[in-house]
Amino acid sequence: MLKGIAVSEGIAQGIAFCIDADRNKENCEDSYRKAESKDEESARFQEAMTAFLEETERAARDLEKRGMSEEAGILRSHMEMIKDPSVTSKIKEEIDNGCCAEEAVDKTMKFFADLFEATGDELTMQRAADIRDINSSLCSKLTNNDLMDPAQLPKGAILVIRELTPSMAVKIDPARALGIIAETGGYTSHAAILARALGIPAVLGVKGALTYIENGKTLILDGISGIVLQEPDNDTKKEYNKKAEMFQLQRERLNVFRGKKSVTASGTIKEIFANIGSVEDAESARAADAEGVGLFRTEFLYMDRTKAPDEEEQFEAYCKAAKAFSPDPVVIRTLDVGGDKDIPYLHMDQEENPFMGFRAVRYCLENRELFKTQLRALLRAGAEGCIRIMIPMVTCLAEIRGVKALMAECCEELKAEGKRFDPDIKTGIMVETPAAAATADILAEEVDFFSIGTNDLTGYMMAADRGNAKVAYLYETYQPAVLRMIRDVCKAAGKADIPVGMCGEAAADPALTPCLIAFGLDEFSVSPEKVLATRKKLSLWSSEDAIAVADKVMSLGTAEEVKQYLDSLKKEAE
Amino acid sequence: MVSKKVKVVNSQGFHMRPVTTFVGAMGKYESDIKILSKGNEINGKSLMTIVAACIKCGDEVEVQCSGADEDAALQEAIGMIESGFGEE
Known about the structure:
The complex is a heterodimer of chains A (574) and B (88).
Chain A: E1 2-3, E2 5-8, E3 11-19, H1 21-30, H2 38-65, H3 69-83, H4 85-96, H5 101-118, H6 122-142, E4 157-161, H7 166-171, E5 177-182, H8 190-198, E6 202-204, H9 209-212, E7 218-222, E8 227-230, H10 234-255, E9 262-263, E10 269-276, H11 279-287, E11 293-297, H12 299-302, H13 311-325, E12 330-333, H14 360-366, H15 368-382, E13 387-391, H16 397-416, E14 426-431, H17 434-438, H18 440-443, E15 450-452, H19 454-462, H20 480-496, E16 500-502, H21 513-519, E17 523-526, H22 531-539, H23 543-555, H24 559-573
Parallel strand pairs in A: 3-4, 4-5, 5-6, 10-11, 10-17, 11-12, 12-13, 13-14, 14-15, 15-16, 16-17
Antiparallel strand pairs in A: 1-8, 2-6, 3-7, 7-8, 9-10
Chain B: E1 2-7, H1 16-26, E2 32-37, E3 40-43, H2 47-52, E4 60-66, H3 70-82
Antiparallel strand pairs in B: 1-4, 2-3, 2-4
Binding site for phosphoenolpyruvate (chain A): 297, 333, 455-456, 466
GO biological process, one term (chain A): phosphoenolpyruvate-dependent sugar phosphotransferase system
Subcellular location (chain A): Cytoplasm
């Protein structure tokens, strides 16, 4: 099994068609030879460039005809790149130095690709792929050796390549290619955008794909999870056939909700946000039609490294996430370290009971410099986009005041340094401890919003670790104790007139949707792939019906009864 | 020579697509066009060097034009940057 980055959703089963583009790259250097005459090499380059421009223009017009003007814009950029005076003058210079046209083009394009790579800026670095793409196109024009003839692609093929170049992507006929696998590339590469636009399932960044996958073998490509399987057995094939059918059906049903407002059957507008753990997730969450980010877990910025990320790195990450969602909000949770999340360089002591120990905001308030770095980055990013700060593991007012005092310090510093920041950044808390839930009315007076973290709240309320098989049965959001807490937190938020969201798994539980509507939850933050499904579920319930369900649920005595009752509703709906 | 400072307002900054439009427009002018950013002097007609300069939203750049049609060139350049290259 291979795994990569799922960039274009869908499931494909087909025959591997491997193209090792590296071979062609070597060919490019192989094609270097002694230039006989400068004029002749110049003329050969001009001819190749004209052919490239004509072909690209044709492809761009083709895309426009198919209503893909954005994608056509990518190809027009390619045309401008080769027409760029600094490119043509460098090529001319190389030819004057005695290079043949192939070498002049290759050296020049590699020079610019390296320049782009050296910027360290992720988006610019990805554009280096575009330059290499132009390089190989021109090279094949010069040597009359076209890289990929789309007519060669047999029907039912899954293309396996080193790097999916935009020029290849536009030549792919969606009627023939069932899927695309590439060794390099990420979610925002042009090739990924094109694959999504063409509606071809694609998994990029599959390391070693060309080594492991053999031409002609049967492949399954899961463009949802990023998994690639070679020569699957019959049971696996059947399983994926089913998955593919379900996916198609669901996609058709759910796509109706894409781009729509999230609104209940009786017209109350809600918000459906996404939970993310990285900047890359922000892009896919936006593509999944989330209306904002309800929880950006910043722990992942701190993990798998030897020291904490500095202010600039964090600032850039937060800005990028905000930009992906601009003008909609991105709620960023401050470092939630401890519990089950260990970060070695923070040197946290072994504790007997880490879930009730020195973690999250408790740790941050003691490690002021570490925390201030994050707060400064957040305050600055707040001036560049719509960012909200969320404090985890709050149990009492003192913690909120402590964080606010630190924020005020940061604001003073930033002001003195003349840096841009948002002094009025919205600050809210996770409600995930029984203490916070029980005093929600008090806490609501001093924060701008709540977000209920049902995962921890359930564990703390029931005093049950879901990882412990002997007590896991108690860990259940349907427990009356947990549901009452959720209801009361929503009520307190409503009274204080602050918005209340939910970022635990319960937010995406379709059985609980009517209860959450009835409680007055404003924002549902779910994993990106659940956005449309949650929006659909919301649309099925009117306030009146939801309140009737919630009243019934709240009158039940046990989690089992609640579950049974909610399950019976599900059956009715089907 | 005429010049003017301007702030980059579009979210993508000087990225591939906006810059494609920009150099397409600047190519019409006879004047030399330079963009000054973070101490670098960039050829305003070169897509590659502009993109490689990673000019971001919020950055301030100075556009310098010199030549027979410098006024018109500067006016169009500033207009494009200020309007966010028609993005958004």
